[in-house]
Amino acid sequence: MAVTEGLNLTLKVWRQKNSQDKGKMETYQVSNVSPDSSFLEMMDILNEQLVNEGGEPVAFDHDCREGICGMCSLFINGEAHGPSDQITTCQLHMREFKDGETIYIEPWRAKAFPVIKDLMVDRSAFDRIMASGGFISVNTSGNTQDANAIPINKHDADEAFDAATCIGCGACVASCKNASAMLFVSAKVSQFALLPQGQVEAKQRVENMVAQMDEEGFGACTNTGACSAECPKGISLENIARMNREFIKSSFS
Ligand code: SF4
Ligand code: FES
Fold first, then answer.
1. CA of 187 to the centre of ligand 2 (A)
2. Is the CB of 88 under 6 A from ligand 2?
3. C-alpha dist (Å) from residue 81 to 11, 20, 87, 154
4. Which long-range contacts link 192-199 to residues 24+ away (Cβ below 8 Å)?
5. Nearest atom (ligand 2) to Cα of 61
């Protein structure tokens, strides 16, 4: 049976006690990390080591560890979710790194995502944007038409589905030089704008979500495309164009 060599790594990790603390990079060594382990499993190894040494473990967000929930959020070697394309941090494996490598691990950096502790940031700004319009109101009295009985052309259904794959991770914001949330908000507007169910509240939705986005302090979009390039779900810039059209349309209706 083939024996896989473990990786010996130097980790430069952002440590910050709370939102008021200035924070700084700390250096740690981890040894014999299996290339088959995930990045977050490697972080678990580091934390076990820190606890055994009487230190404080590194705080980082995670939940499903399957690329679904959008909770994991590390900036790894200067890239949101690390070096691989269209995957989340929890889907990144240590085989992408070399033995002896130094890895820089930082939180999302954006004014609207303040650091809570170490690598954890507060993304509740996204929740408030969703609460302002990211929903449809449906009569649930029992007389509701079955959604499957409403004909929707394949192109629109596919585009709506693609937009709905956004997991709200915030990598788009972290990758944008202006910390713009346009890709996220446009995906959430598009998933409804493309479907008949989303038409009733379309005007209010786009106006409210854009207003909330501005209020939260996200920056303006400059169409550089870094958001889409770093998005783990490959959300397209076409959604931003669609949201802009929806917004202009809303001012005429
Ligand atoms: S658009 Fe992409 S990067 Fe932005 S929140 Fe959604 S999944 Fe994450
Ligand atoms: S932990 Fe859920 S997407 Fe990474």
1. 19
2. yes
3. 16, 25, 7, 32
4. 192/134, 192/136, 192/160, 193/242, 193/243, 193/246, 194/156, 194/157, 194/159, 194/160, 194/163, 194/242, 195/152, 195/156, 195/157, 195/160, 196/150, 196/152, 197/136, 197/138, 197/147, 197/150, 198/136
5. 1
**Whole-number pLDDT of residue 3:** 53
Q: Confidence band (pLDDT; 50, 70, 90) for 143? A: confident
Is the pTM value of this prediction over 0.90? yes
Going from the Cα of 83 to the center of ligand 2, the distance in angstroms, rounded, reads: 16
Tell which atom from ligand 1 comes closest to the C-alpha of 173.
4
Tell me: pLDDT of 253 over 90: no
Look at residue 1 and tell me whether its pLDDT is greater than 70.
no
Ligand 1 proximal residues by C-beta, below 6 Å? 166-172, 183-184, 187, 231-233, 235
pLDDT digits (tens, 9 = 90+) for 209-233: 999 999 999 999 999 999 999 999 9
